[in-house]
Amino acid sequence: MNRFMLVSAALLVGTSSFSARAQTSMEERTTPSAEQTLIPSRFTNGGYGAPVQRFSSVAGKNVLFSGVEGGWIMNHQFILGLAGYGMATQNVRNSGTSLRDSKGRAPVVEMGYGGLLLGYTPQSMSLGHLAFQVVIGGGGFTYDVEDIAGVRQEDAPCDAFFVAEPSLQGEVNITRFLRIGVGGGYRFISGASLDGLRDRDLRGASASLTFKLGHF
Predict the structure, then answer these.
(1) What angle do CA 93, 94, 96 make, to 5 degrees?
(2) Which of 191, 185, 190, 192 is CA-nearest to residue 207?
(3) Of the ranges 22-26, 34-38, 58-62, 111-115, which is most confident?
(4) Is 19 left (phi over 0), alpha (psi -120 to 50) or beta?
(5) How far apart are the first and last CA of the chain?
(6) What's the pTM value of the predicted model, to 2 decimals?
(7) How far apart are the C-alpha atoms of 99 and 157, rounded to whole Å?
(8) Which residues contact 110 (CB under 8 A, 6 or more apart)?
(9) How many CB atoms within 10 Å of residue 55?
(10) 194-203 burial by CB neighbour count: b if 16+ within 10 A, else e?
(11) What is the spatial distance between Cα 3 and Cα 92, in angstroms, rounded to a whole number?
(12) Fewer CB within 10 A of the terminal residue: the chain, N end or C end?
């Protein structure tokens, strides 16, 4: 009896092993191998919006630009969006122009710019990381002639220009939905020509403070 039970057990184990191997072999033949592609099929999407403060200079005077930026975030790294900034400082007077107000002062310079935003954040999920971005677009500037005799506001001299502003930021992940960035860049200007103002008067280095809110 004991010999019969041993033989039966051996046959049962052998049959089970053969069945498992046959099933594995069949799965290997019917299951397709993982395909390697240049662009991974798993693709993540996110987005953000951010108020931005940029400290720079215009016509040799220190100024503050306030603005907003935002965009679509692809795979936690690549950003495609828009940005726009306006000069918040209202006391920049350019003595190089011939225009004067009723008190004999040069008029106040007004300026804004913006355009397409391209960004790259290689280590976005790290607590602290770097973020590269560039804004490419255009802008305009004028003089506030509201108090200048004989010149209406709609007749104020103005001009447009091309702008490209690359920058580098250091960012910290405060929460899953909030990041704070501090950085610096340079504003390149081309095509600006107005009474008393040229490209060199509008271009310059900038320091920025950014509060990003979104899904990263």
Answers:
(1) 155
(2) 185
(3) 111-115
(4) alpha
(5) 70
(6) 0.77
(7) 10
(8) 87, 141, 142, 143, 144
(9) 15
(10) bebbeeebbb
(11) 106
(12) N
Give every CB contact of residue 53 below 8 A, 6+ residues apart in sequence. Answer: 64, 65, 66, 208, 209, 210
What would the pLDDT profile of 110-129 be if each residue is shown by its tens digit? Answer: 999 999 999 999 999 999 99
Tally DSSP H helices, then E strands, for the chain. 2, 10
Best CA proximity match to 170, nearest among 204, 216, 122 = 122
Q: Which residue, among 133, 144, 179, 137, has the nearest Cα to 160 in the 3D structure? A: 137
- Amino acid at residue number 143: Y
Residues 6+ apart with CB under 8 A from 8: none
Residue among 74, 61, 82 at smallest CA distance from 138: 82
Structure tokens at 88: 């918040």
The C-alpha torsion from 75 through 80 and 81 to 87, rounded to 10°, is 110
* pLDDT at position 150: 66
Residue with tokens 């184990």: 13
